[in-house]
Specification:
- The model has no long low-confidence stretch (mean pLDDT 86).
- This protein is an alpha+beta fold and 94 residues long.
- The chain contains 2 helices and 5 strands; from the N terminus they run ββββαβα.
- The strands form 2 sheets. It has a 3-stranded antiparallel β-sheet with strand order 4-3-5, covered by helices on one side. Strands 1-2 form a two-stranded antiparallel ribbon.
- 29% of the residues lie in helices and 27% in strands.
- A hairpin with a 2-residue loop joins β1 and β2.
- The protein has one domain.
- It is globular and about 45 Å long.
Length: 94
């Protein structure tokens, strides 16, 4: 699954530029992808999801939070240096 390059959080029309660390989805018979979050904005996004569930704007199921996982290939082995390179590249792209 290809994810957005930035966290889903925005405040007063200002979008967070930090790369996501978490994938948030709701499970109710099926799994619905809701958004992605950086570490700093996980709690505010969880709170917003709960509010949207109360107003029936999104499904009322269980909130599932997964860590973003980097896929290793022949050229990216998944070493700590590779993770740092990917993270710094994402920061440069903003």
């Amino acid at each position: 699954m290809i994810l957005p390059k930035k966290c889903s959080f925005s405040n007063d029309s200002v979008q967070c530029d930090i790369p996501p660390s978490y994938v948030l989805s709701v499970i109710e018979n099926e799994e619905y992808l809701i958004g992605v979050s950086c570490l700093d904005h996980l709690e505010p996004i969880k709170s917003k999801i709960r509010k949207l569930q109360k107003t029936k704007s999104i499904p009322d199921g269980r909130l599932k939070i997964d860590n973003v996982k980097m896929v290793s290939t022949n050229c990216i082995k998944g070493s700590p240096e590779d993770y740092e390179d990917v993270y710094s590249q994402r920061l440069r792209e903003k």
